[in-house]
Amino acid sequence: MGMKRAVLFVTDMICSACETQIARAVKAIDGVIAVRAKLKGGGVDIEYDDEKTTTDAIKAAIENARYTVGKSKNAPTMIAMGIGFILVSLYIIANASGLFNATPAIDSSLGYGMLFMVGILTSVHCIAMCGGIALSQSVAQLDTCQMRGDASRVLLADEKYKNLIPGLLYNSGRVVSYTIVGGAVGALGSVFSFSPVAKGIIAAAAGFFMIFFGLKMLGILSALPRIPRVIPAPIQNIADRFSSALRNHGPFAVGILNGLMPCGPLQTIQLYALGTSSILAGALSMFIFSTGTVPLMLVFSLAAAFIPEKFVPVMVKACAVLVIFLGLITFSRAASLAGIALSGFPQFGSGLVQLSNGLPEAQTVRQ
């Protein structure tokens, strides 16, 4: 047996599931002894018996799994970075023009129909404050991997809609969280809010994960550190089960936590729920408001689902730049909540539209 080692580069490996899919495709070849696909760098290390197979056969197996074998993974990086900086620039221009400062407030006289409209208008603010989180969930979990099978598998057109699942889960989590909080506020008769320190911690954690997702999408990081094995087995088993559930329903869990993030318009709706003095009415008001925020947030977070497959690697990196930028913005907001001023970061306010004699009156509230 003549054992040889080869290293191939896959240019469109974008997630850990890609590693598994590529390794499975190569391992199925008779004569392959060992294979390891690495997201970081895009390399595939193979040990094989050259009497039974060749590198050409290995390349063909990878390509049959709907991946591209190239000289290196970093060919589209400069294009992706350029697109990413354009996205960041558009975001800054939109913020400077006041696009994100036209979110409405409500009073107790509004009915549920108007409450839904308030949610629709407020969704512009949601994109400004939470768009990075939504984007990171959809882009980082592009379901391209599930669309790639072996050579005998036929790619069905409706499989593309599997890419909608992360965005739907994320927004479903937001709606559930808002509804639960609304019920709690209505029942307790007090505003469900956090201290400034708690607000800062939540926002800082969100910023950290946005930056982490962005770096992971760029291929700079591969995963969070594993829990040390010194942890007792029962606790380790619980942690493993939780991690598995989070991997399967990660966007939903993030959406749940998103409902607890500090947000000016959201706290205004909580005051409305407080005025209902009822679990059912409080939950219903928050449910109607949150469903109003879903359409625009869904369009924003699911835009990645319709990117042509050959452009996915470039767009993943481009969106990663925007996600990292929004993560830094979130860190800036966390510092502001904690009373720490950071220079060099834009500060966002939430514009509120007050109703006066039936006519809208613009007012800007800084938070």
Show the helix and strand layout:
Layout: E1 3-10, H1 16-27, E2 32-37, E3 43-49, H2 55-64, E4 69-70, H3 77-96, H4 112-140, H5 165-188, H6 196-217, H7 233-258, H8 264-276, H9 279-302, H10 312-337, E5 349-356, E6 359-366
Antiparallel strand pairs: 1-3, 1-4, 2-3, 5-6
Helix pairs in contact: 3-10, 4-5, 4-6, 4-7, 4-9, 4-10, 5-7, 5-8, 5-9, 6-10, 8-9
Your description of this structure?
By secondary structure, this protein is α+β, with helices and mostly antiparallel strands. It folds into two domains: 3-70, Alpha-Beta Plaits; 77-366, no CATH class. It has ten helices and six strands, in the order βαββαβααααααααββ. It has helices spanning 16-27, 55-64, 77-96, 112-140, 165-188, 196-217, 233-258, 264-276, 279-302, 312-337; strands at residues 3-10, 32-37, 43-49, 69-70, 349-356, 359-366. The protein has a four-stranded antiparallel beta sheet with strand order 2-3-1-4. It has a two-stranded antiparallel ribbon with strand order 5-6. α5 crosses α8, α5 runs antiparallel to α9 and α8 runs antiparallel to α9. The N and C termini lie far apart (70 Å). The model is unreliable at 143-159, 226-231 and 349-367 (pLDDT under 50).
Q: Give the tally of structural domains.
A: 2
Structural class: alpha+beta
Poorly predicted residue ranges: 143-159, 226-231, 349-367
Shape: elongated
Determine Rg (CA atoms, Å): 24 Å
**What is the mean pLDDT?**
69
Helix fraction, binned, reads 55-70%
Q: Tally the helices.
A: 10
